[in-house]
Amino acid sequence: MQNILRFCCSPVTCRSTVLSFDKAFNLGQVNATLAVYKNLSVYRRTTNKHPVFCEPMFLHWELDVTTFFTIFDHLKAQMILSQGNENQTLPVLGSDKEKAMRIAMAKAFLDTQKLACVRHIEKNVFAFMQDKIGMLQNQRRQLKFLLFQLVTSALDHIDLIDSLCDFESKITQKKPADYVKNRIHPFLVGNKKAVEKPDLDKQIRYG
């Protein structure tokens, strides 16, 4: 817990990193949900990047909202009770698009920023355009490139909203336009808003 407080809950004037939760994986009769974060105090010699640390791990039977809420609510309580610095904050949280996990995270951590994993978003966009729309590979690549280029070029989340709305208006097919607007747009804007936190470690692949 001390490492999480140190690297993920730093005062606003200090550098911090995302506390991320990967999709729960099955261990037979139980499931495991693992928290990961970057250790900002050391660098890998080979890459000159911060290594990823894994802790804590939660073991649970079910994969529903109630179970994940219990996990996150307990974690939040431990963070608050363990904080020794009154200037410490709750962390920016990251996750993939597992619905039950994200709903529970939003309810347990009402006032914290949440990030969705960009790798998963890109993968889902590519799969949707291939399986549901039947786009050719070069069309899928072009659309994905243009869509995510908006994220990197936007000055802030307000600028991104304007760019996405303009982008969506130019998609001539209703099905992909609705998918981008309703399924992808909220995640990208949420990510952009979260990483506007000035002290957040930008090396993490979340937006």
What's the layout of helices and strands?
Elements: H1 2-8, E1 19-21, E2 25-26, E3 31-38, E4 52-60, H2 65-82, E5 93-95, H3 99-108, E6 114-116, H4 118-133, H5 137-153, H6 157-169, H7 174-194
Parallel strand pairs: 1-5, 5-6
Antiparallel strand pairs: 1-3, 2-3, 3-4
What descriptive keywords fit this protein?
207 residues; Nucleotidyltransferase, domain 5; 2 domains; 7 helices; 14% strand; disordered C terminus; MULE transposase domain-containing protein
Q: Radius of gyration, Cα only, in angstroms?
A: 18 Å
Name the helicity range: 40-55%
Number of helices: 7
- Integer average pLDDT: 84
Number of domains: 2
Low-confidence stretches: 202-207
How far is the N terminus from the C terminus? Answer: 26 Å
Q: Would you report the number of β strands?
A: 6
Summarize the entry for a quick read.
By secondary structure, this protein is α/β, with parallel strands linked by helices. 49% of the residues lie in helices and 14% in strands.
Could you explain the architecture of this structure?
- It is a single chain.
- The chain has two domains: 2-112, 2-Layer Sandwich (Nucleotidyltransferase, domain 5); 118-194, no CATH class.
- It contains seven helices and six strands; from the N terminus they run H-E-E-E-E-H-E-H-E-H-H-H-H.
- It has helices at 2-8, 65-82, 99-108, 118-133, 137-153, 157-169, 174-194, and strands spanning 19-21, 25-26, 31-38, 52-60, 93-95, 114-116.
- The two termini are 26 Å apart.
- This is MULE transposase domain-containing protein.
